[in-house]
C-alpha cells in the first residue's frame, strides 16, 4: 500500500466513523424503545421517536449538501457532527416524551449532515476510478451499522439504562470529530463572492419531502391509504415537487441544481438504483428478523446477528466489484448483475413458508446480500462520476434523499401488505402462517422493484471514470461532457 493510499484510508476512517453514528443510532434507539416508554410514558407518541428523526434527516440532507458546496465542506461536516453529539446529550437527559421527540428531531438534522457530507467528502477525496479500493470500507461500516446497532442497543440498555442509548454516541462522536479535524485536508474551494441561500427552494423542498415522508410513515398503519390525511399529504408532496422544480430553475444557487439531474442520464439512473436499494434494505432489515423470530423461532436478543447471512456477502461483493472496477475501469456489469441477483434473491425469499429452514433462508439472504454489494456502491459511484465537484454535496444529498424516500415508501407499502395478511386476532400456529404469508407478499413486491432496477441498470451508459485512463487529465477534476459522447448518450 503506497503512502498516498494509506493517507486516504486514514482520513476516510474518520469520515466513516462519523457516518457510522447515524447508521447505528436508529437501530440502537429502536432496541431501547420499550424501556423508554416504561420510564417516560407517552406510549401514544412513541412512533414519533423514530418519525421525528427520519423526517428531520430527509428534510435537512439537501440543505447540508448545498451548504457544503457553497462553503468549506470540512467545516460544514464538523458542524453536523457537533450538532449530532449535542442533541444526543440532550436526548439522553430528556425528562418527558415531548422533550425526547424534540431532541430526536435535532439529532435527525445532524444526521442529515453526516450522510450528505460524508458521501460528498468521499467523492472529493477519491476520484471514481480509484474509489473501488475503498468500497470495502464503506460497505463494512454500513454492515456494522445494521448488525451492531441492535446488539449495542440491547447490551447498553440492559446494563446501563436507556439514556445510554444516546450517551453511547458521545465517545465515538468525539473521536470522529477530532479525527476529521486533524486528518482531513481538502483542496481549497473557490469561495463564492457572496453566496445566496436558496431559502424559497429550501422551504418548498422541506414541505414536499416532509409530506412524502409522513405519508409513507402513516399510510396503511396509522391511517388508511384512502384517508383524507394521506391523500392530502400526497397532494402536498406532488404539488410541492412541481413548485420546487419551477423555483430551482429561476434561482442563481438552487439547493438541488437542475443541472445535476440533466447533465448526464447516468445520474437519475443511479438515483433510481439507490431508491431500489433503499426498498430492499429497509424491508429486509424490518421483516426478515420478524420472520426469523415469529416463524423460525429465533430469539429477539440476537436480532442483529440474524442479518449476518445477508450483510457479510455485501462486504465481500463490494470489495470484489471495487477491485475489478479500479483495475479495469469497467463498472456497468456490476449493477446489471447485482440487480439480477436481487430479483432472484427476493423472489426466492417470496417462497418462504413455515417449513423453510434457517439454512435455506440464509442462502436466499446471501443471494440478496451479493446483489446489494454489487449494486449499492456502484450506483453511488455512478452518480458521483456524473456531476461536477462544485455540485458534489447537492448530488450526494439527492442520492441519500431518494434512497430514504424509496425505503420509506417501500416500508409503507410493506406495512399495508403485512397488516392485511396478519389479522390482529391471529395467535399461535395461525399467527406463524399469517406472518409467513405476509413475508411472501412483501418480497414478491420487492422482486418487482428489483426487476425495474434491472431495466435501469441496462440503460446505464459506461463512460470513463475520472482519475483513470480515458478520464480527465487531472485527478479529481470533473468532466461535464465527454468527447466520446453524443447528445443521445447523455
Strand content: under 5%
Measured distance between first and last alpha carbons: 36 Å
Largest sheet: none
CATH topology of the largest domain, by name, is Growth Hormone, Chain: A
Global mean pLDDT: 80
Q: Do you know the CATH architecture of the largest domain?
A: Up-down Bundle
Please estimate the helix content: over 70%
> What is the number of beta strands?
0
Features:
mainly alpha, Growth Hormone, Chain: A, 3 domains
Secondary-structure map:
Layout: H1 3-40, H2 47-70, H3 73-92, H4 97-125, H5 135-160, H6 164-167, H7 169-183, H8 199-218, H9 228-248, H10 258-262, H11 266-294, H12 308-328, H13 333-349, H14 358-384, H15 392-421, H16 428-458
Helix pairs in contact: 1-4, 1-5, 1-7, 2-3, 2-4, 2-8, 2-15, 3-4, 3-7, 4-15, 5-12, 8-9, 8-15, 11-14, 11-15, 11-16, 12-14, 13-14, 13-16, 15-16
Task: Provide an overview of this structure.
The protein is mainly α and 490 residues long. The protein folds into three domains: 1-185, Growth Hormone, Chain: A, CATH 1.20.1250.20; 198-252, no CATH class; 257-465 and 485-490, Growth Hormone, Chain: A (Up-down Bundle). It is built from 16 helices and no strands. Helix 1 (3-40) packs antiparallel against helix 7, helix 8 runs parallel beside helix 15 (392-421) and helix 13 (333-349) packs antiparallel against helix 16 (428-458).
Amino acid at each position: 500500500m503506497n503512502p498516498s493510499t494509506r493517507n486516504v484510508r486514514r482520513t476516510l476512517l474518520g469520515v466513516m466513523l462519523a457516518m457510522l453514528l447515524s447508521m447505528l443510532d436508529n437501530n440502537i434507539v429502536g432496541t431501547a424503545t420499550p424501556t423508554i416508554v416504561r420510564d417516560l410514558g407517552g406510549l401514544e407518541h412513541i412512533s414519533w421517536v423514530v418519525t421525528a428523526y427520519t423526517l428531520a434527516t430527509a428534510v435537512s440532507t439537501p440543505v447540508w449538501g448545498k451548504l457544503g458546496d457553497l462553503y468549506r465542506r470540512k467545516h460544514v461536516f464538523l458542524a453536523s457532527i457537533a450538532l449530532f453529539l449535542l442533541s444526543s446529550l440532550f436526548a439522553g437527559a430528556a425528562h418527558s416524551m415531548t422533550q425526547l421527540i424534540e431532541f430526536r428531531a435535532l439529532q435527525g438534522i445532524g444526521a442529515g449532515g453526516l450522510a450528505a457530507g460524508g458521501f460528498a467528502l468521499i467523492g472529493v477525496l477519491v476520484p471514481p476510478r480509484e474509489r473501488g479500493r475503498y468500497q470495502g470500507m464503506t460497505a463494512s461500516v454500513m454492515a456494522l451499522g445494521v448488525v451492531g446497532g441492535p446488539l449495542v442497543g440491547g447490551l447498553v440498555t440492559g446494563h446501563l439504562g436507556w439514556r445510554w442509548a444516546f450517551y453511547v454516541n458521545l465517545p465515538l462522536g468525539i473521536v470522529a470529530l477530532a479525527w476529521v479535524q486533524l486528518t482531513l485536508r481538502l483542496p481549497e474551494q473557490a469561495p463564492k463572492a457572496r453566496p445566496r441561500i436558496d431559502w424559497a427552494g429550501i422551504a418548498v423542498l422541506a414541505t414536499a419531502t416532509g409530506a412524502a415522508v409522513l405519508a409513507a410513515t402513516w399510510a396503511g398503519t396509522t391511517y388508511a391509504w384512502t384517508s383524507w390525511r394521506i391523500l392530502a399529504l400526497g397532494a402536498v408532496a406532488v404539488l410541492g415537487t412541481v413548485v420546487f422544480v419551477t423555483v430551482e430553475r429561476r434561482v442563481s444557487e438552487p439547493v438541488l441544481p437542475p443541472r445535476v439531474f440533466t447533465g448526464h442520464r447516468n445520474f437519475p439512473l443511479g438515483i433510481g438504483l439507490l431508491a431500489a436499494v433503499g426498498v430492499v434494505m429497509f424491508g429486509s432489515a424490518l421483516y426478515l428478523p420478524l420472520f426469523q423470530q415469529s416463524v423460525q423461532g429465533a430469539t429477539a436478543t440476537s436480532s442483529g446477528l440474524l442479518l449476518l447471512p445477508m450483510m457479510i456477502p455485501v462486504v465481500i461483493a463490494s470489495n470484489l466489484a471495487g477491485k475489478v472496477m479500479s483495475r479495469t475501469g469497467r463498472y456497468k456489469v456490476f449493477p446489471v448483475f447485482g440487480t439480477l441477483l436481487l430479483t432472484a434473491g427476493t423472489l426466492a425469499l417470496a417462497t418462504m413458508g413455515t417449513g423453510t429452514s434457517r439454512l435455506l433462508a440464509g442462502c436466499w439472504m446471501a443471494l440478496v446480500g451479493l446483489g446489494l454489494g454489487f449494486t449499492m456502491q456502484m450506483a453511488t459511484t455512478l452518480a458521483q462520476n456524473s456531476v461536477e465537484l462544485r455540485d458534489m454535496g447537492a448530488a450526494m444529498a439527492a442520492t441519500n434523499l431518494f434512497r430514504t424516500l424509496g425505503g420509506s415508501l417501500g416500508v409503507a407499502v410493506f406495512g399495508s401488505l403485512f397488516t392485511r395478511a396478519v389479522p390482529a386476532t391471529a395467535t399461535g400456529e395461525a399467527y406463524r402462517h399469517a406472518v409467513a404469508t405476509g413475508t411472501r407478499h412483501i418480497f414478491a413486491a420487492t422482486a418487482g422493484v428489483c426487476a425495474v432496477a434491472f431495466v435501469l441498470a441496462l440503460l446505464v451508459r459506461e463512460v470513463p471514470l475520472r482519475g483513470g485512463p480515458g478520464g480527465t487529465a487531472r485527478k479529481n477534476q470533473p468532466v461535464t461532457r465527454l468527447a466520446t459522447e453524443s447528445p443521445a448518450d447523455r
